[in-house]
Amino acid sequence: MFSFSSLRGTVQPELSKKLYRLIKSENNLISAHEEAGRQRVSIATQLSEWGEQTGDEGISDISDKVGVVLSEVGEQEDTYAHALDDSRNVLKTIRNIEKSVQPSRDNKAKIADEIAKLKLKEPESPRLVVLEQELVRAEAENLVAEAQLTNVTRQKLKESYNAEFLATIERAEKQIILARHGMRLLKLLDDTPVVPGDIRPAYEGGAQARQILNDAEDDLRDWRPDNVEEVPQQTTSSSRRQEHASRDSGYAGTQGTTTVDRDSYDNNDSADYIRDDTTARSTTQTTAPTAGQEQRMSGGSGSGAPVSDEELRGEHQVSSSSSPPPPPASLSEAGRSESLSRDVKGLFAEL
After folding, report:
1. Has residue 299 got a pLDDT over 60?
2. In the chain, % of residues over pLDDT 70
3. In this model, does residue 68 exceed pLDDT 60?
4. Which long-range contacts (CB under 8 A, 24 or more apart) does 75-79 make?
5. Sequence spans of domains, the chain
6. Is the pLDDT of residue 269 over 60?
7. What is the pTM of this model?
């Protein structure tokens, strides 16, 4: 079925297409875990209802208590799906950086192509000097953007999959806890065969069954990860719960509706940028050195240090009285390299 989200997928920049598809695939995985959790809860309810209609006190009580355990297993599956969604949202930061770097690459390639064409057509054209200067500036901006990309990519890749592995450990260990207590419940049910005409002893495990459920609840509440080195997360648990609560209000409905709503959220770039304050807000417009105002790229330095809002909003003013020296026919390779180095140092100094 056609949708605006599928249309957006076809117009992604080349640099971010693969990660865009990966994030979409993660969406399907999350939906599958959510559906598995719902099915587990539904099965637990059906088990309890079946046990009640058997008329056997022991079967009725144990099936009801086992249903409670299975229902909690389903809740753990849903919690895991939310953790996967958190991990997936971190990857969106890398995708957004890739989208912001692509115009910088394209601009540099466009200017270089224009210079090559002009050299063939008009080797003595005075416009060559202007284009050479624009190319130097574009290359300098691209170097800064590429540095920002590699820094953020490394940081966010570790953060994303560290969160996923921690969630996997938590889900596995909590489900083990529930499974062990479930087996304790089953031991309360006497399955000793009786011969026809004999009366089975009355079921007396009700109090023990309730205590087992209390033990399971206590063990889940007291659970802590053991010997796990966690990568520092920028999003706190309370803020994640608030995000899930607000996001789930838009996910309500059938599984198909859930997928569509999350797809819409995926393509809300403004929401993606809010999630991380280190996301680069780079400018790709390049001007000649004679322009009255110099555009610069926003983002971290090569060391990955964050930049303050005041610096991001700041602009480097170029004196209107300054003018470039009389240009030669074109910049030499050595001269262009020296100018590029000077511009890169200037950009990093500004940042």
Report:
1. no
2. 61
3. yes
4. 75/37, 75/41, 76/37, 76/171, 76/174, 76/175, 76/178, 77/33, 77/34, 77/36, 77/37, 77/40, 77/171, 78/33, 78/34, 78/37, 78/38, 79/167, 79/171
5. 14-119+150-191+202-274
6. no
7. 0.62
Q: Where are the alpha helices (DSSP H) in the chain?
A: 4-9, 17-53, 57-121, 127-187, 206-222, 237-251, 255-266, 269-274, 309-313, 333-350
Instruction: Answer for the pair 189, 62: CB distance below 8 angstroms, yes or no.
Output: yes
The per-residue pLDDT for 15 is 78
pLDDT over 80 (residue 293): no
Q: Classify the phi-psi angles of 253: left when phi > 0, otherwise alpha if psi is within -120 to 50, otherwise beta.
A: left
3-state secondary structure 216-273: HHHHHHHCCCCCCCCCCCCCCHHHHHHHHHHHHHHHCCCHHHHHHHHHHHHCCHHHHH
DSSP, collapsed to helix, strand or coil, labels residue 317 as strand
Query: Can you read off the two tokens belonging to residue 288?
Result: 């000649």
Give the chain's mean pLDDT. Answer: 74
At 40 the three-state DSSP class reads helix
pLDDT-wise least confident of 53-67, 86-100, 105-119, 169-183? 105-119
CATH 1.20.1270.60 at 14-119+150-191+202-274, yes or no: yes
- Burial class for 159, CB neighbours closer than 10 Å (0-12, 13-18, 19+): buried
Work out the end-to-end distance of the chain between its first and last CA atoms, rounded to an integer number of angstroms. 46
C-beta of residue 101 within 8 angstroms of C-beta of residue 146: yes
Q: Whats the size of the chain, residue-wise?
A: 351
Token couple for 252:
């309500």
